[in-house]
Design brief:
This protein is an alpha/beta fold. It folds into 2 domains: 159 residues, Aspartate Aminotransferase, domain 1 (Alpha-Beta Complex), CATH 3.90.1150; 266 residues, Aspartate Aminotransferase, domain 2 (3-Layer(aba) Sandwich). It is 37% helix and 16% strand. The protein is built from 12 helices and 15 strands. The strands form 3 sheets. A 7-stranded mixed sheet has the order 4-10-9-8-7-5-6, with helices on both faces. It has a 4-stranded mixed sheet with strand order 1-2-3-13. Strand 7, helix 8 and strand 8 form a beta-alpha-beta unit. The longest helix has 22 residues. The mean pLDDT is 97. This is Ornithine aminotransferase.
Length: 443
């Protein structure tokens, strides 16, 4: 099967819906291009005009087992016929217990764990912030986050988010007590140093400047970080960064919280991206790919730190039985179809292919990633982010039948379903290569 464009997008049916959307919905979100989805299956998406696209973004890293996987759909149907809701925060049922048991097994760390359910990634971060502060019973009010990261848009998570100014503009004041350190972005080091000669100054900066100048270390509850920066540009830290960060957290007694909302659930070829770095966090925040598109999030943490008292935090819909059934089926599919291995194998092929493109197309300044979480940063002749080339490339690819979006200022974000084959990946990469070249000619 190949992408099939029968009507130049956006077609007439799409434009009719685009018009109604702009009239009826608050436009507080920015769309990359006017795709109007009718249905989706596997790695394919069909729009209302009959065009069929190859999906390189998985509904923003959500449909990890592919769109409408039969086993996930069946699990949803079976649970929906039993009951849809009865509020886990006031009563009990089996599905969230079974899922918590499974999540505890696949998350790193051979220690007792507990789970708290949410409905989204931003709620998972909110829960993590409250858990960290609450665990220390108010004695450690401060949180350290990283510039360039994205953790959500509700007020607590937004206080940690700093990937684009528009996300914060006109919305202050935000949650107090949050401090930002530079994210380890070696391709564009904020300290203008080179790795490994820098000796991981990005970690030393936290201790030598933040903790010794203006943030009392004994009052820091946690450091919150994405193992691979998502919205900030699919940035992969150096191999030893997290070991140094873990050592720093242990030295001063604060928690290490990792945001795996986009990088988790097999996206990088391991259940969680932090596993690539040989470090065990205290709390992991997940959402997106956990339930194949149904609203569900969670934090999984050491039982000793997941100790908020009854009544201090809850969610009416968190741990919804239908979402939990979908999550259990999603995990089962990842295991049975060996999608971690497939993500590693196809991801390695994609990285190799992109680096070959890089030799022919100097505008591809950097290629980075793990598994099927891959970024290709587009740059000008001076090495600066090429924002116009990114947008032109994405729009051109859309019109050729490839759904791919950006991250950071000018990074192409490649995050297809983990079910994608090498042949399908090559189809998409060929379209992407043609689109970059065509976009360059349009500039």
């Amino acid at each position: 099967m190949k992408p099939n464009i029968v009507v130049p997008p956006p077609g007439p049916k799409s434009m009719e819906i685009v018009k109604k959307d702009s009239e009826l919905l608050m436009q507080s979100f920015a769309r990359w291009y006017p795709l109007v989805v009718k249905r989706a299956y596997g790695v394919w998406v069909e729009d209302v005009d009959g065009n069929v696209y190859l999906d390189f973004n998985s509904g923003i890293a959500v449909t990890n087992v592919g769109h409408a996987h039969p086993k996930v759909v069946q699990a949803i149907k079976e649970q929906a016929e039993k009951y849809l809701h009865y509020s886990l925060t006031d009563f009990l049922y089996e599905e969230p217990v079974k899922l918590a048991e499974k999540l505890s097994k696949i998350t790193p760390g051979a220690f007792p764990k507990k789970v708290f359910y949410t409905n989204s990634g931003t709620e998972s971060i909110e829960a993590a912030i409250k858990t960290a502060r609450g665990h220390f019973r108010g004695t450690r009010p401060y949180i350290i986050a990283f510039a360039g990261s994205f953790h959500g848009r509700t007020y607590g998570s937004l206080s940690l988010t700093s990937s684009k100014p528009v996300q914060r503009r006109h919305l202050g004041p935000l949650l107090p007590g949050v401090y930002h350190a530079p994210y380890p972005y070696c391709y564009r080091c904020p300290f203008k140093q080179r790795y490994p000669e820098c000796n991981m100054w990005c970690v030393d900066f936290i201790e030598e400047w933040m903790l010794k100048k203006y943030v009392p270390p004994e009052e820091v509850a946690a450091v919150v970080i994405e193992p691979i920066a998502g919205e900030g540009g699919y940035i992969v830290p150096p191999p030893e960064f997290f070991k140094r960060l873990r050592e720093l957290a242990d030295k001063y007694g604060f928690l290490l919280i990792v945001d795996e909302v986009q990088s988790g659930m097999g996206r990088t070829g391991k259940w969680f991206a932090i596993e690539h770095f040989g470090v065990t966090p205290d709390i992991i925040a997940v959402a997106k790919g956990i339930a194949s598109g149904l609203p569900l999030g969670a934090i999984i943490g050491k039982a000793e730190v997941m100790d908020l008292p009854p009544g201090s935090h809850a969610s009416t819909f968190g741990g919804n039985p239908v979402s939990c059934a979908a999550a259990l089926a999603t995990i089962q599919v990842i295991e049975e179809e060996k999608l971690l291995e497939n993500a590693t194998r196809v991801g390695e092929y994609a990285m190799k292919r992109l680096r070959e493109m890089q030799t022919e197309i100097p505008a591809i300044g950097d290629v980075r990633g793990k598994g099927l979480m891959i970024g290709a940063e587009l740059v000008t002749e001076k090495g600066e982010p090429h924002i116009k080339l990114l947008q032109l490339t994405l729009d051109t690819a859309f019109k050729k039948g490839l759904l791919v979006i950006g991250a950071g200022q000018s990074t192409i974000r490649i995050a297809p379903p983990l079910t994608i084959t090498q042949e399908q990946m090559e189809t998409g990469l060929s379209i992407l290569e043609e689109s970059i070249k065509e976009a360059q000619r349009k500039l």
